[in-house]
Amino acid sequence: VCHQNFDKVVVTLREQYDMDKLVAKHLMQNYGTRALMVAELARSISQSPHQDDKGQQFRYLKLYSKYPMLEAEVVFACRQEYACTAVDVLARRTRLAFLDAHAAEQALPRVLDLMQKELGWSGRRKEQERKAALDFLKTMSMPS
Q: CA-CA distance, 100 to 37, in Å (whole number)?
């Protein structure tokens, strides 16, 4: 369909949006050419560089520093993909819950804040989503 132009998407993300290679490849693999829409949204959310726990500079906020998923993907999922629950975002949209339940739990407060702002949730709804997500994430952890 795109005539092998996906490499151009990665190059565009790296050159025009100043994204690191891992994030650019992640966005291309998950969104195809719509990765550019996610990048534009990420740019509008965060203009200044940030520093991770290892001191590396990055421009776009990640849901969890170890993985390439961006906060902008949560907003994109709400606006463009009709995501309406935190479990939907963490499990199906970003798949972070399947990769690392602990990371998903750590990202949950920020996911909830972003979704509350995007979807106009009340404090009560946000708390319901928090509880539902924690219950779901418990099922994703390995038994001890």
A: 26
